[in-house]
Write a structure and sequence with these properties.
heterodimer, A: about 110 residues, mainly beta, 6-stranded mixed sheet, 11 strands, about 55% strand, B: 7-stranded mixed sheet, 4-stranded antiparallel sheet
Chain lengths: ~110, ~110
């Protein structure tokens, strides 16, 4: 049973546009929410992460927005570039050792 | 120098065979994982070791047996391979147990069972 629901499954955006990926969770014990980026043929790599005591975290063109009451969080990619074309996974964990991943979103940035 | 390495990169084998995948990390981390990524790219944790001790064992068929000879290595042995085992297997490491640390993934082993 998937503990983190991610949407959309895929999206296409023009260069310079904004990509938005949404995730939702049910388990209120989750207290760490990372996003991983995976390029074709490679392993996932941590992109950015947030804890529920903040509502937003920005690193360069990537921003996580977190809504604790709605149990939702999202990744915004500003000024999307062709090099951002990849699969993005949201994830969540609690105080145990396990990351529960969303199903992934394939982002294609058209030049 | 690669932080988390896996061998082999590709593995094509027949149903019923036994195969092993090896993983090594040179980050000095205490914790290592095996994940399975299916054809729909869904990532699911299989096992985790902390300092050579098994700490996570998800609902995985007992045909899959992890082994950690030391904290830098975590191998995965699969007996009696089935068609459904075809997937990409990723090894990952983390500085210490506790999921609020970055996990560093290897490049993956693409297993195809014919």
């Amino acid at each position: 049973q998937q503990q983190v629901k991610q949407s959309p499954q895929s999206l296409i955006v023009q260069k310079g546009g904004i990509s938005i990926i949404n995730c939702a969770y049910e388990n209120t014990a989750f207290d760490y929410f990372p996003w991983y980026q995976q390029f074709p043929g490679k392993g996932p790599a941590l992109l950015i992460a947030i804890r529920p005591d903040v509502s937003e975290k920005k690193e360069g063109r990537f921003t996580i927005s977190f809504n604790k009451s709605a149990k939702q969080f999202s990744l915004h990619i500003m000024d999307s570039q062709p090099g951002d074309s990849a699969t993005y996974f949201c994830a969540a964990s609690m105080s145990d050792y396990k990351l529960s991943f969303g199903a992934g979103t394939t982002v294609t940035v058209r030049a | 120098d690669t932080a988390v390495s896996q061998t082999p990169k590709y593995l094509v084998t027949q149903m019923g065979n036994d195969k092993s995948i090896k993983c090594e990390q040179n980050l000095g981390h205490d914790t290592m994982y095996w994940y399975k990524q299916d054809s729909k790219k869904f990532l699911k944790i299989m096992f985790s070791y902390n300092n050579k001790e098994l700490i996570i064992n998800e609902t995985v068929p007992n045909r899959f047996s992890p082994k950690s000879p030391d904290k830098a290595h975590l191998n995965l042995h699969i007996n009696s391979l089935e068609l459904g085992d075809s997937a990409v297997y990723f090894c990952a490491s983390q500085s210490q147990a506790g999921a609020q640390e970055t996990q560093y993934f290897g490049p993956g082993t693409r297993l195809l069972v014919l």
